[in-house]
């Protein structure tokens, strides 16, 4: 089994997340890609939606996307969300591919025990407008020393961010081009992002 993992705050999930997960699945021949909403993304708090709301939005968003699943492993856990803890809790056996955008790659060496994460998964990075795709020096050295490579995913750049979506909702503007209709409806029904949280 080859399983892709796309972790995120998903506050809210948007079309670039879905495109990224599907692109990785196709390009790398993955059996499935699991979207994993972080329970308490410690570098991100406060968030506009609760862990269960972000999980529900992801569950709605992946409807009709074959091979994409929502994994509640991090929203079911309490305390700050550390990716290594998640990897430790996943079943052994499959080959895991951790998918991330260029912005998070730049940040990767601030993750808790990042080198253990890099040893456990194949890292897969996608370009993102506004974030030059640069490999942090420490990670580049680690990859070379451990004869490991970073996979660069062929991915058509999409200038979409959850921050832009939250801002638009706060301003009362449409987000229909950036998020699935079911997610827009959920946000409206739950009154999310009408006021700025950070
Ligand atoms: N437009 C995009 N292109 C490529 N990767 C993306 C894009 N949007 C999000 N990602 C990646 O998806 C993962 C989860 O992202 P996250 O849930 O934090 O969304 P975000 O849009 O970056 O949020 P925010 O705007 O609040 O910072 C991260 O690895 C991020 O780099
Ligand atoms: O493990 C860590 O210390 C760590 C630090 C920062 C980010 N992450 C993970 O990176 C993913 C993307 O995070 P974010 O902030 O872009 O939503 C998400 O799965 C986070 O849990 C993980």
Automatic annotation (TrEMBL):
<comment type="pathway">
    <text>Cofactor biosynthesis; NAD(+) biosynthesis; deamido-NAD(+) from nicotinate D-ribonucleotide: step 1/1.</text>
</comment>
<keyword id="KW-0548">Nucleotidyltransferase</keyword>
<dbReference type="Pfam" id="PF01467">
    <property type="entry name" value="CTP_transf_like"/>
</dbReference>
<dbReference type="InterPro" id="IPR014729">
    <property type="entry name" value="Rossmann-like_a/b/a_fold"/>
</dbReference>
<feature type="domain" description="Cytidyltransferase-like">
    <location>
        <begin position="5"/>
        <end position="167"/>
    </location>
</feature>
<keyword id="KW-0547">Nucleotide-binding</keyword>
<keyword id="KW-0662">Pyridine nucleotide biosynthesis</keyword>
<dbReference type="InterPro" id="IPR004821">
    <property type="entry name" value="Cyt_trans-like"/>
</dbReference>
<keyword id="KW-0808">Transferase</keyword>
<keyword id="KW-0067">ATP-binding</keyword>
<dbReference type="GO" id="GO:0005524">
    <property type="term" value="F:ATP binding"/>
</dbReference>
<comment type="similarity">
    <text>Belongs to the NadD family.</text>
</comment>
<dbReference type="GO" id="GO:0004515">
    <property type="term" value="F:nicotinate-nucleotide adenylyltransferase activity"/>
</dbReference>
<protein>
    <recommendedName>
        <fullName>Probable nicotinate-nucleotide adenylyltransferase</fullName>
        <ecNumber>2.7.7.18</ecNumber>
    </recommendedName>
</protein>
<comment type="function">
    <text>Catalyzes the reversible adenylation of nicotinate mononucleotide (NaMN) to nicotinic acid adenine dinucleotide (NaAD).</text>
</comment>
<dbReference type="InterPro" id="IPR005248">
    <property type="entry name" value="NadD/NMNAT"/>
</dbReference>
<dbReference type="GO" id="GO:0009435">
    <property type="term" value="P:NAD+ biosynthetic process"/>
</dbReference>
<keyword id="KW-0520">NAD</keyword>
């Amino acid at each position: 089994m080859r399983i892709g993992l796309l972790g995120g705050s998903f506050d809210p999930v948007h079309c670039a997340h879905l495109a990224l997960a599907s692109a990785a699945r196709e390009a790398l021949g993955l059996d499935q890609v699991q979207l994993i909403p972080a329970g308490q993304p410690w570098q991100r708090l406060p968030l506009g939606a609760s862990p269960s709301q972000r999980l529900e939005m992801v569950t709605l968003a992946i409807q009709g996307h074959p091979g994409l699943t929502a994994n509640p492993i991090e929203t079911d856990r309490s305390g700050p969300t550390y990716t290594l803890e998640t990897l430790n809790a996943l079943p052994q056996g499959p080959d895991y591919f951790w998918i991330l955008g260029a912005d998070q790659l730049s940040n990767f060496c601030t993750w808790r025990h990042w080198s253990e994460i890099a040893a456990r998964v194949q890292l897969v990075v996608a370009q993102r407008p506004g974030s030059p795709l640069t490999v942090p020096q420490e990670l580049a050295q680690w990859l070379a020393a451990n004869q490991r490579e970073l996979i660069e995913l062929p991915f058509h750049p999409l200038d979409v961010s959850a921050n832009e979506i939250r801002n638009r909702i706060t301003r009362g503007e449409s987000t229909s081009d950036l998020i699935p209709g079911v997610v827009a409806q959920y946000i409206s029904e739950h009154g999310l992002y009408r006021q700025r949280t950070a």
